[in-house]
Amino acid sequence: MSQPPATSPLLNLLKEHRTGVLATLKRDGRPQLSNVSFAYDDATRTIRVSVTEDRAKTRNLRRDPRASFYVSTPDLGAYLVAEGDAELSPVAADPHDATVEELIEVYRAVAGEHPDWDEYRAAMVADRRLVLRLRADRVYGWGRTQGRTSGPLT
Fold first, then answer.
1. Deepest in the core among 53, 57, 82, 154, taking most CB within 10 A?
2. Whole-angstrom Cα distance, residue 14 to residue 70?
3. What are phi and psi of 118, to 5 degrees?
4. Domains present along the chain, CATH in parentheses
């Protein structure tokens, strides 16, 4: 049984889990996959990931913003793939800039409170971190109890 993507219970996978797999495209067109922690905003259907400027996934997305994001249940009994064009924030340049503030939001959504926010802020600048935002424009997936879904999120 297929369900419309916007109402599919498979979307709950993005709300309930904090780790997934980000797929970007290498220069030669083959996929490059990265295990990542993520935060999901249901209101905007946006997946946010903290990344560093020098990583392959960041370089790939600067060249081609198309990306897919895979999340599943631990027993692999259900999965969802979200697709869209990624947007990258500026690289953190100051411990109190907008990028660092957004990185704090992502951290809190994934892991809760940090024991030393000043240390965290400094590390984000030193590590040249930024926020990857992937708005889920289209999804597909399947679950033993949830059925399947495929199509644009409208």
1. 82
2. 9
3. -65, -45
4. 2-90+129-143 (2.30.110.10)
